[in-house]
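User: Here's a chain of 210 residues. Predict its fold as C-alpha cells.
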Amino acid sequence: MFNPWNKIDLEIYEQHMADHEVYQLQELNQITKEQLADNDCTYVGICGIAGGNGLENINITDTNRIFAMDINANYLNTCRKRYSHLEGRLELIHCDLLSGEFTLPATTLLICNLIIEYLGEVPFLDMLNRNKAKIGVVSCVIQKNNRNSFVSASNFASHFDPLQPIHNNINEDRLKSIFNAHGFTSIKQKNYDLPNGKELVRMDFDCSRK
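Assistant: Prediction complete.
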C-alpha cells in the first residue's frame, strides 16, 4: 500500500522527534503514559505506532491486548523486535486506516497521536463512526504549529518533505465539533508546551456517553 510514510526512515524520524528543540518523542512518551493511566486500558489500540514509542508504559497486569497499527510494515517489524516481552499481547496490524476494507479491533482505549494531521479530520471521524460500536474512549494528540512550519526545524527536517501533500492543519475547536457531531463526548483536554513554541493538544472523547 503506497503512502508517503513508507518513504520515511524510522531512525531519521526518531532522531528528528527526539531533537532537543523538537522534543516530541519524549513528550509523547509521557502523554502515552498519562493516556493509559487515565482510561480503561484492558484493550488498547494505537493508530500510527511507528517504532513503538510509549509501549514501555504498558502495564501487562492491566492490559490484555495491544493492537498496534501502522501503514509502514518496517515500523511494525521494529516494534516486534523492540517489544518482544509483549509477545502474546501485542498484535501488529499492517493497514491503511482510511481503506474502506479496514475495520478497527474492539478497544476500550484507542490512542491516535499525531496521525489525524495525515488523515484529515473528516475522513478520520468517518472511519471512527463506521467502527463506533467497537470503541470505548478515543484519546488523540494534535499539534498546534503556532505560526511554525508543520515539520519542526532540525537537521533532519528535509527528510519529511514527502509528507507535505498529505498534511492537514488541525484546529482543536473544529475537531471537537466534529467529534461531538458523531456522538463522541469530550471528557478531557490538556495542552503541552514544546521548546520551539509549538504545542501538543491531547483530547479525549468517550463514545459510550450520551
